[in-house]
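::Encoded backbone::
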Amino acid sequence: MSFTVRKDPRGVVVIGVDGQLIVGNRHELKQKVLEALERGERKLLVDFSNTGYIDSSGLGALVSLSKKIRESGGELKLAGLNEDLKTLFELTKLDTLFTIVESPEEAVASF
């Protein structure tokens, strides 16, 4: 499990989640996002293209990050969800909280 962080030429911070987003690593994701906010970044994208599973603590981390980003005047988008993850977000109604875009490229272009 690892996270990658890069800044797109359009100024969007793209955080890639490789593997799973679970109780054991959710704090690492939160730290990456909070560091970006502290640097003044306001356009954030979490890329789940290489993610197979998100547990309830991972969802909780995303919800709390979404709130913090909004409070900072920023915007968070999610992209690259596989069919299982899309279903998870629909069943939990979190698809109404997050802006979910099909691909990372589309998400970056939509900021």
Q: What stands out?
A: Strands lie at 2-7, 13-21, 43-47, 51-54, 75-79, 99-101.
